[in-house]
Amino acid sequence: MFAQGGHPVFRHSMSTKDQLSTTASVRIAVKDTGSPASALLLTKKTMALPDQFQLQAIQQTAEALDGRERSRLFYLCGVTDVDNTAGCVEDVLKSRVIRHQGEDQFLPELLLQLGRFDILKEVYKTSRDEVEKALTHRRVLPSFKVLMANINEDMAKEDLNSVKFLLGQTLSREKMENAQSFLDVIIELEKLDIVSPGRVDLVEECLRNIGRVDLAKKVTAYKMSAVPSEGHSSPQQRHRAPCPSPTPNCSPCLQQTLRAHPIHIATENLTAPVYSEQSQMEFYKCNTNPRGVCVIIDCVGNDGDSLKQTFTALHFNVVLHKWLSAADALSVLGEVFRRRENLAGDCFVCCIISRGTGNHLLGTDSYGAGLHLDDVRRLFNADACPVLAGKPKLFLIQRYDILEIPPRAGTQHRDEDLETDGCFGLSRCDLVPTDADVFWSHCWTGEQQLVRGDHRSVYLQVLRDALHKGQRRKTHLVDVHTEVNAAIFEHNRRNPGATYHIELKHTLRKELYLQ
């Protein structure tokens, strides 16, 4: 079944007897201009059916797939309204093998899209790399269906519910209730000719309005690559082809729904293109293990442990300090890059949770000037800490505003206190963040929030959730923070007496993915 080089080959010679035994009759209705439709019976048309090896491989494949994978397979093969059984999978695959005679990569490409590399290895005796290499210049599966199937896999349940809500006046309630997946919704939209290979604006609009910018960009990339002949154009040809004619941005029903139920999405004026092959914007290298050091200073005691779990899952070396005074916090930060193991990472993260006022953090102090936020940033700029030059530096600050400034007493921090041997001294900078490669997210709320013993910062909760989703969806950091903005906006709308204020400033020169 495999030619030299390991590429899958499904053509097999058949004896004359075998060919005669596979003769099929096909009835075709033909309409002749000016005359009634007549039925032509075409007989003795030889159609090569799958050989014994293929039949066995198809059977093994069908039995190995679960219900969700069978549904995706049916969609990729353009089959709807069939029983979700292994038997139906066998029938569909047999018919498709006949249809794609000469297309040896059909079955391997299908398994590649399903992510069943184990079947490729055990049944078809090939590997993912070999199949991808064979598909470099030619693919069989329609790129539109592949796109929809991939979006389906990346869509969480809450995302699906949001899409169904937006389309509530486009599809009937019965259709919505029966839709158990994104593909079910797409199938119904295709039936109405609202969505098709040349008409995907509605899908893109919905994805953007539910905050799935990462998936919307995939649709944008598809629109930018014209598909003159599905399954018969190379990626290079598709990128050179002109873009298809624009279609309506969204249906009147969707516009009406959005007007009636606006969804707040905190947007940022970015021009981040879609994929690396189309993008002028580069990506920060962030793949060392660990990714870098994450210093967490929790002077309140409620969210530090949860943050540690989050950044540990993001492959950072996390150092958590609790209940520090302002002076101790400054000392801890100054010691970070004196440790040799912290020098090799691709990224740096600093999280601080503290009471404070304005641009000062008090830590556990009940008096004093506190630690100025500019001083925190200046500790890690390129002049003070050359090892971080060109690397992304993330500062995530949760401040609880005290009602009034306590009388000044104790030690006041001076510029000379900021010097550290590990970072080779400091140079003065302006307001945050003026240096390159800085991501500064600063949230503040009233100190009264801490009266409850079980208090958890809403900002830090939604930030953790967004970072986990961003890791799973491969979303870059600025888009991740857009979801945080939206969640804070919604919280404030529902809880006007416990509002949070959030400020994002960044000087990132590239896209940053925390994977």
Automatic annotation (TrEMBL):
Keywords, alphabetical: Apoptosis, Repeat
Gene3D superfamilies in the cross-refs: 3.40.50.1460, Death Domain, Fas
A GO BP entry: proteolysis
Residue intervals of the DED domain: 58-125, 143-221
A Pfam cross-reference name: DED
CC terms in the record's Gene Ontology section: cytoplasm
Record GO terms (molecular function): cysteine-type endopeptidase activity
Domain of life: Eukaryota
SMART domains tied to this protein: CASc (SM00115), DED (SM00031)
Domain Caspase family p20: 303-398
Family indicated by similarity: Belongs to the peptidase C14A family.
Protein name: CASP8 and FADD-like apoptosis regulator
